[in-house]
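I have a small job for you when you get a moment. Would you make up a two-line entry for one protein for me to read? No commentary is needed, just the two lines. Write everything out right here, beneath this request.
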Amino acid sequence: MSFLQPRPDQPLVIGFDCEGVDLARYGRLCIMQLAFDDAVYLVDAVMGGNSLMQACKLGLESPYVIKVCHDCKRDSEALYFQYGIKLNNVFDTQIAYTLLKEQHGKKWVPDDYISFVDLLADERYCGVVYDEKEEVRVLLRKDPQFWAHRPWTVMMKRVAADDVRFLLRIYERMVKSLTELSKWRLSVRSSLYCQCFCAGDDCFLGCPLPPPPERP
């Protein structure tokens, strides 16, 4: 499988997300979702533990595997501090959406970011209504340990899968509309997203930032 053993001659694009309890440095990563063209895999970090997560390390760190996700900051933080995994080569749809607006003349405003539910509903990129996400938010407020419970309920599996199953469709539509300069900015900003909560005494330096595109 090219995700577990990445190769430069077999580039790959996957959807990616994580769920957990207070997902961050000191929380607990419970599920990692990986969406491929033909299947969605739910990686159970609670039952599989470190050995299962380490099996995914090469793919998550590989420059040959594009990880499409929405707001990767906390996911990256959890992976780094809990498993020593440096998330790399991310296409962050939250950043891409902002860049596409900038291409059409709208200035960037701090903290003006689109939610994943609103992005899914945007017909230019997906056009899917995701009401169940709000139901899960209500459940999480009542039970913060929601994602740590085992065995998984039908709802847990469905929502975890739905969080990634449309990411490749969104990626395909976004990448066609991004200019080369915007793609470079996306790569830089996504890399900084991966690192922004990982600074410390053993600072996550990540991979070198890509050089800017040549001017035409």
In short: The chain has a mean pLDDT of 93.
